[in-house]
Amino acid sequence: MNLHEVFTRFPDQKACIDHLEAIRFANGAYCPLCGSMENVRRSNLKSRVGRWNCHDCKSSFNVLSGTPLSGTHIPLPRWFAVMALMVNAKKSLSSHQLARDLGLTQPTALYMQERLRAVMASDQAGMLAGIIEADETYVGGRPRKQNKRDDSPTGGQGKSDKTPVIGAVERDGKVVAKIADDMTGKGVLNFIQTAVSPAAQILVTDENKAYRAVRGMMAHSVINHRYEYVNGPVHTNTIEGFWSLLKRAWYGSHHKYTVGRMPLFIAEAAWKYNHRKDGCAWDSFTRALFA
Ligand SMILES: [Zn+2]
């Protein structure tokens, strides 16, 4: 769904509520607090988002209760427009650009982006299976300088101001990535155990010895980048491809962002990667609101 289609299909608050209720309450409206189906829609429509009363727990709720957009005072057509622009932006979108495109203040644009990234963070890939590649990279600090390697902690020189990120990806499948707090064998094993199914066929990494810690858990194959980059099925090109997407997005729009914003930023890149083959990523996103 592009911006034009979103404006046409969802011109006002009611159209947006109807659409979201059709997704979340497809089998009848339920109370997000107690799960009761005994609800009645409030007759007064003063509230921005249509409210329901629960007969069982006596609370009131709306279609966004319990989601990252709960309690918002921003009109829903505006949220829908930001969703369309964000989901369709391959390299992500700076809050300044978003503010200019939609006539928002920059803090409002950033607030909306962070809420929508929280939706993406709540809808990440489950345990990966099949042939898995794992790797780490360094993001942040100064933008890439020409002819200097960017994937070392110091960008080739000086003290590190980059943040380590670890990731695992299925060949032709989904990715899981996060800030790496601990790149020792113990930290790497901990990440792999939370991201990769023990039934996965094999883990492929570069020569970083920390990844040997997985050998008690699964088969492990190494491509030694000092000698070669591909040896038949043994390569890390898939995860390298994800790193390049992540970095282009970060350095293209987000180089002023702080490390504190990076987890949600990584979640956005991973969510888009994982939904790259969806017929309509916007539909996938609206379902993820209620995941
Ligand atoms: Zn209830």
Report on this structure.
Helix content is 36%, strand content 15%. By secondary structure, it is an alpha+beta fold. The protein folds into two domains: 3-121 and 282-288, no CATH class; 131-256, Nucleotidyltransferase, domain 5, CATH 3.30.420. The strands form three sheets. The chain has a five-stranded mixed beta sheet, with helices on both faces. A hairpin with a 4-residue loop joins strand 5 and strand 6. Helix 3 (76-88) packs across helix 5 (106-121), helix 4 (95-102) packs across helix 5 and helix 7 (237-253) crosses helix 8 (262-274). It is globular. The two termini are 20 Å apart. 32% of the residues are buried. Residues 154-158 have low confidence and may be disordered. Zinc ion is lined by residues 31, 33-34, 36, 54, 56-57, 59.
List the helices and strands and how they pair.
Blueprint: H1 3-9, H2 13-24, E1 39-41, E2 51-54, E3 60-62, H3 76-88, H4 95-102, H5 106-121, E4 131-139, E5 163-170, E6 175-179, H6 185-195, E7 202-205, E8 220-222, E9 230-231, E10 234-235, H7 237-253, H8 262-274, H9 281-288
Parallel strand pairs: 4-7, 7-8
Antiparallel strand pairs: 1-2, 2-3, 4-5, 5-6, 9-10
Helix pairs in contact: 3-5, 4-5, 5-8, 7-8
The structure holds zinc ion (ZN).
Zinc ion binds next to loops.
